[in-house]
Amino acid sequence: MTGSVANTAWLVTGAGGILGRDVVTELLAAPSTRVTGLTRGELDITDPEAVRAAVAAHHVVVNCAAWTDVDGAEDNEAAATAVNGMGVRHLARACAEMGAILLHVSTDYVLPGDAGLPYAEDAPTGPVNAYGRSKLLGERMVAELLPRTGYTVRTAWLYGEHGHNFVATMLDLACRRSTVDVVADQYGQPTWSAALARQVAVLGRVALAGRAPAGVYHGTAEGRTTWYGLAREVYRLSGLDPERLRPVGSVAFPRPAVRPAYGVLAHDGWARAGVACQPNWRDQLAAALETPRFAEPAATARAAALTLAAG
Questions:
Q1: Angle CA(290)–CA(296)–CA(298) in degrees, nearest 5?
Q2: Confidence band, pLDDT 50/70/90 cuts, at residue 6
């Protein structure tokens, strides 16, 4: 089915999630594009027959469906693997049978998180938790079954208009607490889901035109920071006092799943496809905070700050 960009049919799985909804919106804005968005309730990717029926007659599949409960995966690794590993296998096999391109969304958690420089796309993997292991299996299924038409896009620290995310949480806490402790020893790249959706859509079109080598791409913002650094920028840009934030180590928030200490990704792969890298994380955040999803909570937080200061 590959070869023509015009009059293409796209399937987006996990279309009810933070990224899936943005991908559907981005694709619908393009002319001559038919988009089928299926939520988790509408398509269970662990069902191979349902997957095969859904993929039929589509040129590009964007897989945003995933088990995303990182801590829950520690006690339910088989269930997480059924979605993040074998579910991706079903999608890849169906795409191989029908000649469709697969754009699969993965994570920096497939990497060990012990580097000091940004991870290249071909850096050795080594997940430190069950979630990462389940996602790595999905990556391997794409590479094995779709060596020429399979694309894995790793992302990290995603926030956006839909669903729960760190940026929204910080604005909510600003309304209720005079000070907030934030982890300052984990490094990553805060990425706006709208920016990633645009990049994924461009990659799919370039792949349809035969100009994008298959393989791994890193779909994160340029630059790096810590959760504490991100929180300070959220406060600063929202007109709140960043000094209300207090840096702490990861040990202050013990979790069932170990988090990689360093999840910064390099972006060299995009040059091979002729696709631009995403903007710096600060620029993305500034744009995102102007949208109603964050601008309205920021205004509420500013008003609440006056009450907290008076109290």
A1: 80
A2: low
At residue 75, the pLDDT reads 97
- What kind of fold does domain 8-164+189-223+264-279 have according to CATH? Rossmann fold (3.40.50)
Q: Are 59 and 100 in contact (CB under 8 A)?
A: yes
Q: Does pLDDT of 308 surpass 90?
A: no
Instruction: Return d(Cα 118, Cα 120) in angstroms, integer.
Output: 6
Q: Vertex 211, ends 206 and 215: CA angle to 5°?
A: 85
Q: Is 131 a catalytic residue?
A: yes
CA dist 117 and 264 (Å) reads 7
Tokens of 304: 């609440």
Neighbours of 213 (CB within 10 A): 12
Q: In this structure, are residues 166 and 159 in contact, taking their beta carbons and an 8 Å threshold? A: yes
pLDDT of residue 311: 61
Q: What is the pTM of this model?
A: 0.96
CA 77, CA 53: separation in Å to the nearest integer? 27
From CA 28, how far away is CA 35, in angstroms rounded?
7
Say if residue 5's pLDDT is above 70: no
Residue 122, judged by CB atoms within 10 A of its CB (0-12, 13-18, 19+), counts as exposed
Supply the pLDDT for residue 232: 98
Separation between Cα atoms, residue 212 and residue 199, nearest integer Å: 13
Would you say 9 and 28 are in contact if contact means Cβ atoms under 8 Å apart? no
Q: Where would I find the beta strands (DSSP E) of 2-142?
A: 8-13, 33-38, 60-63, 101-107
Burial degree of 67 (CB within 10 A; 0-12, 13-18, 19+) = buried
* Catalytic entry in 131, 159, 187, 228: 131
Residue ranges covered by each domain of the chain: 8-164+189-223+264-279
User: Would the pLDDT of 85 be above 70?
Assistant: yes
